[in-house]
Design a protein that fits this description.
The structure is a single chain. With 332 residues, this protein is of the alpha/beta class. The protein contains eight helices and 19 strands. A hairpin with a 7-residue loop joins strand 7 and strand 8. The N and C termini lie close together (8 Å). The protein is globular, with a radius of gyration of 21 Å. 25% of the residues lie in helices and 24% in strands. Bound molecules: zinc ion (ZN). Zinc ion (ZN) binds next to loops.
């Protein structure tokens, strides 16, 4: 893994950041910490590989990406892209729409995988020899062993709060749309209101199969009337707007960084629901165990991978290191 966060697999592939010496770039998903140097990759790499949904989301979230650029090649899950003597494929990851893991098989049949970000419950484990694994919740304290179904809790909280008027939900791109889908599947039929950027991401999710019902822009007349008059609707905003909108309304923030309780009151009318699109610590360990990897590298760039590497070695007896370290660049 390189110092700029590029995950280097085999001889040709750099994932989730630009690497000048690699002809292939893979984008596992459209979150900003996996789009580093994308413009450079599109300009310099022979191919930039990702799913079609990730391409559409990345183009929405990162204006510099041109959908029709000839270097961009979309792949289905499981479709093999051959380059030199290596075979590259994307495997579904349960994280946000379009998210994937990456598998590179070299000429000798060695299987090298990068998990990208994932939640274990909906993610097929890649059987591999060498595994690079995300480490967001890589500390043993990061466990969400709740007795209740957090999804059901979230839906019932929204339903209850709708009796008092508009409900604001704060979260990250991708997860907001997952919450929207959950609410629709639970027959919550009130209008959803959102600012333009969230709306654009939501439209991409609808293009790729989500059915999210009535959507209004918060800047349009209909959306403004709903919010200004505190009428029953759910307003979805990015987490970074928490301090700026809906300050007098009932508010729900969805975040994975909560381990004590599935639902906790954090303000007069605000609750934090522990809903994550990442595996917790137990999920990470379980993924590594099921992958049967003989060598594991934890992502020490997007999160602190040291603790997870130590726990993998200790609990599973598998060789594990966190990368990048301070000195130099390493390839696997
Ligand atoms: Zn992510």
């Amino acid at each position: 893994m390189a110092k700029n966060g590029a995950v280097l697999l085999g001889d040709y592939v750099a994932c989730d950041a630009f690497c000048a010496s690699r002809p292939l770039r893979v984008v596992t998903h459209a979150h900003a910490d996996h789009l580093y140097g994308l413009r450079k990759s599109v300009k310099c790499c022979e191919k930039v590989l990702m799913t079609e949904a990730t391409r559409d989301l990345a183009a929405t979230l990162n204006g510099s990406l041109k959908l029709a650029d000839p270097s961009i090649q979309t792949l289905e899950y499981g479709q093999v892209f051959e380059y030199g003597d290596e075979r590259i494929s994307l495997v579904k990851a349960d994280h946000i729409l379009g998210a994937s893991q990456v598998l590179v098989e070299d000429a000798g049949g060695i299987r090298i995988a990068w998990s990208g970000d994932f939640r274990l419950e909906g993610t097929p484990v890649v059987d591999c020899d060498v595994l690079v694994v995300e480490a967001t919740y890589g500390r043993p304290s990061c466990r969400r062993n709740f007795k209740v179904d957090v999804r059901e809790l979230l839906v019932s909280k929204v339903e209850k709060n709708l009796r008092g008027g508009s409900v604001y939900v704060f979260g990250y791109h991708g997860k907001l749309q997952e919450v929207m889908q959950m609410l629709r599947q639970a027959d919550v039929e009130v209008p959803f209101v959102m600012p333009e950027r969230v709306y654009d991401v939501t439209k991409v999710c609808e293009k790729h199969g989500m059915n999210l019902g009535s959507l209004s822009l918060s800047s349009d007349k209909v959306g403004r009337q709903l919010l200004d008059n505190n009428l029953p609707c759910v307003a979805f905003y990015h987490m970074n707007m928490r301090q700026h909108v809906g300050l007098r309304n009932s508010r729900i923030s969805v975040s994975g960084w909560e381990f004590s309780k599935p639902c906790r009151q954090i303000g007069e009318r605000e609750h934090l629901i522990a809903f994550s699109d990442h595996s917790d610590f137990d999920g990470l360990i379980e993924y590594v165990r099921q992958s049967r990897a003989k060598k594991v590298i934890t992502d020490n760039f997007r999160s602190n991978g040291d603790a997870l590497a130590k726990e993998i070695s200790r609990r599973l007896g598998v060789s594990a290191v966190s990368m990048p370290k301070d000195s130099g660049q390493m390839t696997f």
